[in-house]
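Sequence design from tokenized structure. All designs in this work follow the same two-part layout: the structure record, then the generated sequence. An example of the structure record is given first.
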């Protein structure tokens, strides 16, 4: 599929419309092709955000650069989540499901990210096994979404 300016606007910036499985898969792969490298970079850069505060240095350039990248990464993740929601809403609408279901996976993933951030900071409130529950729930939502949007045959479904 060719992603020109008009196609990108329709697929990722608007909520209205309907698309087929092939278009949804192409759009999802395009978004994943952006998100995966950004995430891999963050995994490499993230340790630099843990700075030793016992040292009296005013500014650490590596730490500053890591936090600047974090701001960029967070903004990109939110834009990709909105774009995937718009893309998936079109597909849900095409298969006769409520378009609002498109927000389920991005919402679950953002809640999961918050849980992974919060748990090490409050292990007495949120035990480590809770992260496994959150991750299983996210995996369930992801598998259901990918099945419904990319694999299921809506014509064979009984109503």
């Amino acid at each position: 599929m060719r992603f020109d300016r008009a196609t990108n606007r329709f697929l990722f910036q608007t909520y209205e419309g309907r698309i087929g499985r092939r278009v949804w898969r192409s759009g999802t792969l395009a978004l994943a092709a952006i998100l995966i490298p950004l995430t891999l970079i963050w995994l490499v850069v993230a340790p630099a955000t843990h700075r030793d505060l016992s040292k009296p240095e005013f500014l650490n350039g590596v730490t500053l650069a890591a936090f600047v990248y974090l701001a960029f990464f967070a903004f990109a993740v939110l834009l990709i989540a909105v774009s995937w929601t718009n893309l998936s809403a079109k597909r849900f609408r095409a298969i006769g499901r409520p378009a609002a279901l498109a927000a389920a996976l991005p919402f679950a993933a953002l809640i999961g990210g918050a849980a992974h951030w919060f748990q090490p900071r409050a292990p007495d409130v949120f035990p480590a096994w809770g992260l496994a529950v959150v991750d299983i729930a996210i995996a369930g939502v992801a598998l259901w979404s990918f099945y419904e949007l990319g694999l299921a045959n809506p014509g064979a479904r009984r109503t």
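The two ends are 32 Å apart (CA to CA). We note this feature because it recurs in several other targets discussed in the main text.
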